Every structure is written in C-alpha cells, then in structure tokens.
Amino acid sequence: MSLWVLDTDCLSLLQRGHPIISQRVTAVNPREIATTIITVEEQLRGRLDSIRRVSSNDARILAYRRLRDTLEDLRCGGDAQYHGFMIRSGNNLHT
Question: DSSP characters for 30-91?
Fold first, then answer.
C-alpha cells in the first residue's frame, strides 16, 4: 500500500476547506492518506506564535479558538484519525 502524506501546507489548506485539496483527499481511500508528527508540531507552533503576537482581545479570542480547533483536529496519543486519515507518529508507516 502506498500512502499520500500531506505536508503542513496541504493539511492547512484541507483544514480551511480548500476545494481542490478537499476533492483530492475525498477521492483517495482514507487509509492511504497520512501526515507526520512534524506537521503536527509545525501547526501547534504556528498557533502558539499567533497567540503571542496578538494585540487586541478580539484577536486573542480568535487565536485561542484556532488553537482549540487545531488541537481537536490533531488530538492523538499515537496514531489517530483526522478527516478519516491517519496521523503517523513514528517511522513505521504500515497499519
């Protein structure tokens, strides 16, 4: 089985509902799509950086809401499902 591994850019576009990325992901068997723990780290780092940079209460609320949404998307204690595909937490890519 070969895997489609979504990098940070593609996963971010999927989370935003990008029509082309969403269409392609939907067309593939969910068990053949993965992302890496590196992408998880990059997404969390970006959310935390945006929280540190905000200057208004409204922006802070939005930044925390986005962090919460990202954590809900990525919650896992090993391999986990996200939009029906696997987040791979190790070098072993078979399930």
Answer: GGGEEEEHHHHHHHHHHHHHHHHH--SHHHHHHHHHHHHHHHHHH--SSSEEETTEEEE-SS
Q: Left (φ > 0), alpha (ψ -120 to 50) or beta: where does 83 sit?
A: left
**Residue 20 near residue 51 (C-beta atoms within 8 A):** no
- Supply the pTM of this predicted model: 0.69
- Structure-token pair, residue 41: 């780290």
pLDDT along the chain (95 residues), means of 10: 86 90 87 84 94 96 92 60 52 43
Beta bridge partners of 81: 86
